[in-house]
Amino acid sequence: MGKPPPGNNENIGNGLMAKTKPFDDNFLRYEDWFEKNRYAYESELAAISTVLPQKGEGVEIGVGTGRFAGPLGIRWGIDPSREMRRIAASKGIFVLNGTAENIPFPDNSFDFALIVTTVCFLDNVPKAFREIFRIVKTRGSVIVGFVDKESSLGRVYLEHKNNNVFYREAKFITTIEITGCLNGAGFRKFSFYQTIFKDPGKIREIEPVLKGYGLGSFIVIKGVK
């Protein structure tokens, strides 16, 4: 794909109510987490890099401030949060307003799509994965990074979600549930990787990336169209 189409894209792909207020109001706190938990963040990047295609055009769904798209070389993103889009755009990412359930791109637009720590905020996960399937080319892929509901960190987030400005409305999901939704959307040939084996605040070096799931808290699933 080339550069974004001219004109104002603020209202494109905004068919569902998105949980944007916590991110618009607390974007500095969001950014601060990555600075305070640098090795956990770099561990997540390493896990995603394990399955990320080396060639082709990608898009990040729920690009946020570009914390993943930027280092991973992904030029395109969508996000419903105005403040998140502003920061991501300042990093050179082409960002459109949109939700995962209503993606503002034509069919077969990208070689792969990345969605990281976003699934728990979606209104309709099956619809979102069907949309991602639609915009990915044949033999293209989806990469989903998330905190497993059944992991040690997932259980902590669930227990304290009402005290967390970002996770109050989050609905955490298991690896099996996400794989089922991806399969229902049409994706196949799944591969799984995991990292984050300790409390993120106690990690002092990049964590290992292991195949499978069930031990680490941060899971990466790759599926192929």
Short overview:
This protein has 225 residues and is an alpha/beta fold.
Distance between the termini: 19 Å
Question: What is the correct CATH architecture?
Answer: 3-Layer(aba) Sandwich
Query: Largest sheet at a glance?
Result: 8 strands, mixed
SSE order, one letter for each helix or strand: HHHEHEHEEHEHHEEE
* Fourth-tier CATH superfamily name: Vaccinia Virus protein VP39
What is the domain tally? 1
CATH class membership: Alpha Beta
The number of distinct β-strands equals 8
Report helical residue fraction.
25-40%
Uncertain parts: 2-18
Radius of gyration: 16 Å
Sheet with the most strands: spatial strand order: 3-2-1-4-5-8-6-7
- Helix and strand content put the structural class at alpha/beta
The averaged pLDDT comes out at 89
Number of helices: 8
Instruction: Note the overall shape.
Output: globular
- β content, as a range? 15-25%
The fold-level CATH name is Rossmann fold
